[in-house]
């Protein structure tokens, strides 16, 4: 008989994070995520959950996702904050929101043209919004010791993950108490939030062919873009969210900062009378790296912790960068 190689085991990026695979009815296939549960969290002592987004589920937990990280990851950030008494117990959930090879973005939308994924694994039906809202969140809350309900659930992300995090919260403010983004790749809203900028180079990127269709369904894009959703959403519902937005300095544009996109998103928040929980959204030494993404979580984790433990959507005094 020919030798059959055993299936490859999942890579252990961090032994503190559990790798979980489950079947998604929405996608029609199995998907994986990582989850970190602090040692003192159990069925008798449940914790709020913070969902951290980027693209592939490994990115937040891989200490060598880029060279800037120096062998640390966001779990190290959380454990240092916890040891210092700045935050309480939190479950950290790291979903995959892309194809398995991370080349095709799911964007937490029900894709307009999933066939354009060209057979990439991990896409299935392409119904990533249904996967995230209807499959993943209920699965986490039924299988792990996390507190259910929107006031005990937050979402944050880096780059496209930041755009997805704010979009998810603006679409479903009932599901989240806080939403954060570092260097979010937000699209520009036009016509009082009815359209997106047609000539935006990000919109044209082929990685969005499956999500947004070819030619681009710009009305669909606008319906899922955070800036448009904030401008046109129910203000009372949006005000329930603690919004936490930061980005790199203008000097790092165009490739190492989404400064202008972040400024535009904050202008949309201000237009609705909604505040950013950060007094200064610019991380002075920041760039589009995992070092700065972790620095952003280090800076803002107490804000999420506060929002996830208080019924009122109000945050404490705005956080400022350490001098």
User: What's the architecture, going by CATH?
Assistant: 3-Layer(aba) Sandwich
Strand count, sense and closure of the main sheet?
7 strands, mixed
**Overall number of domains:** 1
Counted by DSSP, the helix tally is 9
Report on this model:
The chain has 323 residues and is an alpha/beta fold. The protein has one domain: 3-Layer(aba) Sandwich (Rossmann fold). It has helices at residues 74-83, 128-143, 160-171, 209-212, 218-224, 226-232, 235-238, 259-271, 290-307, and strands at 17-24, 29-36, 49-53, 91-95, 153-158, 178-182, 189-190, 195-196, 242-246. The protein has a 7-stranded mixed sheet, with helices on both faces. The protein has a two-stranded antiparallel ribbon with strand order 7-8. Strand 1 (17-24) and strand 2 (29-36) form a beta hairpin. Helix 6 (226-232) packs parallel to helix 8. The longest helix has 18 residues, at 290-307. The termini are far apart. The relative contact order is 0.14.
How is the secondary structure organized here?
Layout: E1 17-24, E2 29-36, E3 49-53, H1 74-83, E4 91-95, H2 128-143, E5 153-158, H3 160-171, E6 178-182, E7 189-190, E8 195-196, H4 209-212, H5 218-224, H6 226-232, H7 235-238, E9 242-246, H8 259-271, H9 290-307
Parallel strand pairs: 3-4, 3-5, 5-6, 6-9
Antiparallel strand pairs: 1-2, 2-4, 7-8
Helix pairs in contact: 1-9, 3-6, 6-8
């Amino acid at each position: 008989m020919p030798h059959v190689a055993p299936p490859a085991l999942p890579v252990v990026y961090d032994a503190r994070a559990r790798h979980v695979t489950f079947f998604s009815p929405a996608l029609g296939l199995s998907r994986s995520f990582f989850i970190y549960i602090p040692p003192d969290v159990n069925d008798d002592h449940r914790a709020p959950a913070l969902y951290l987004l980027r693209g592939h589920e490994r990115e937040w937990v891989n200490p060598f996702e880029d060279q800037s990280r120096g062998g640390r990851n966001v779990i190290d950030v959380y454990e240092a904050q916890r040891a210092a008494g700045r935050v309480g117990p939190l479950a950290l959930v790291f979903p995959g929101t892309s194809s398995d090879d991370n080349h095709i973005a799911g964007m937490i939308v029900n894709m307009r043209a999933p066939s354009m994924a060209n057979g990439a694994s991990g896409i299935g039906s392409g119904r990533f919004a249904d996967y995230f809202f209807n499959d993943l969140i209920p699965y986490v809350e039924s299988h792990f010791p996390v507190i259910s309900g929107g006031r005990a659930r937050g979402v944050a992300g880096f780059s496209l993950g930041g755009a997805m995090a704010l979009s998810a919260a603006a679409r479903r403010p009932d599901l989240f108490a806080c939403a954060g983004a570092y260097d979010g790749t937000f699209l520009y809203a036009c016509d009082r939030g009815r359209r997106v900028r047609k000539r935006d180079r990000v919109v044209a990127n082929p990685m969005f062919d499956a999500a947004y269709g070819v030619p681009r369904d710009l009305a669909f894009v606008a319906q899922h873009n955070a800036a448009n959703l904030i401008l046109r959403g129910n203000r009372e519902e949006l005000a329930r969210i603690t919004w936490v937005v930061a980005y790199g300095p203008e000097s790092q544009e165009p490739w190492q900062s989404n400064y202008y996109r972040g400024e535009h998103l904050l202008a949309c928040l201000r237009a609705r009378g909604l505040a950013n929980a950060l007094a200064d959204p610019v991380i002075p030494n920041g760039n589009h790296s995992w070092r700065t993404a972790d620095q952003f979580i280090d800076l803002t984790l107490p804000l999420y912790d506060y929002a996830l433990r208080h019924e009122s959507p109000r945050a404490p005094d705005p956080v400022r960068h350490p001098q």
